[in-house]
Amino acid sequence: MKKGFLLAVDTAGDSVDLAVDDGGRVRRLRRAVRHADDALWPALESLLKKAGLRLEGLRGIVCATGPGRFTAVRIGVTFADTLARARGVPVVGLTRFAAFAPRLKGGPDGLHGLVIPALREESYLQIWRKKGASITPAADPAWAAAGGLNTALDGALPQDASGATAADLIEPGRRLLALKRRPSLSPLYLKPANYSK
């Protein structure tokens, strides 16, 4: 990637969470909002001003693809994709689990269940395997209904991954952006569409 800065976008949680990395340091802005679509552009402008950066320096975007609420995820993915197309820069998506997983480095070897609480005591989760310095997914991301988390964890050590931030997207995103064949930017929806409770 040429000199400039990398932008990370995460609207999958309960906020607009943005980070920029100009190769020197990562700067982050998080705003709790009810309507991410109205807050994204002003938040980006504020972060760029704070960081002393101009949009012309944008060289790539990494976006949290979920899990999260349907509309929140869609807003972030659409914003990142539209901005990337308008600026002619590459964009990649990462789950919030993949953003959080590097934090397992100091933990014990074995299976770790990364958990993000959802509404009504439901949970999103993904099992990861840590062996030495290697941290890899051991299962696909999943959704657990209320009361079903322990069964879904199947003995894996639970880890609250809801603290993943836009800044956590930067390093894994940079590696993906450097690939010749980048993964597509697709939202991750885990809760069944016909589920009602």
How widely separated are the two ends? 46 Å
The percent range for strand residues is: 25-35%
Multimeric state: single chain
Poorly predicted segments: none
Number of domains: 2
Q: For the largest beta sheet, what order do the strands appear in spatially?
A: 3-2-1-4-5
- Give me the CATH superfamily of the largest domain: ATPase, nucleotide binding domain
**How many helical stretches?**
5
Helix share of residues?
A: 25-40%
Please give the CATH architecture of the largest domain: 2-Layer Sandwich
Overall form: globular
Task: Describe the protein in words.
- The chain has a five-stranded mixed β-sheet, sandwiched between helices.
- 28% of the residues lie in helices and 30% in strands.
- It has two domains: 107 residues, ATPase, nucleotide binding domain (Nucleotidyltransferase, domain 5), CATH 3.30.420.40; 57 residues, 2-Layer Sandwich (Nucleotidyltransferase, domain 5), CATH 3.30.420.
- It contains five helices and ten strands.
- It is of the alpha/beta class and 197 residues long.
